[in-house]
Amino acid sequence: MSGKKEGLIKSTYQEIKQTIMDIKPDDSPTKKFGKRLGFVMFMTLMVCGAIAMLIAISFAH
Q: Which UniProt keywords apply (predicted)?
């Protein structure tokens, strides 16, 4: 193996990013911006959901 191994989090992040917002070279700048903004909103929602779940679990314990 000549390449450096990526971490689990980084590789998962890249896979999610490519799956959700596959930016193509022929996309307009507006479309690229919309895809990036949508991905940031999606990741924010996922992080908030994970934090809410951790809080709920901690109170249920």
A: Membrane, Transmembrane, Transmembrane helix
**Coil/strand/helix, residue 51:** helix
Q: 0.90 cut: is pTM over it?
A: no
Instruction: Yes or no: say if 37 and 23 are a contact pair by the CB < 8 Å rule.
Output: no
2: left (phi over 0), alpha (psi -120 to 50) or beta: alpha
DSSP-assigned states of every residue in 7-23: PHHHHHHHHHHHHH---
If you average pLDDT over residues 33-59, what whole number do you get? 93
Model confidence at 3: pLDDT above 80:
no
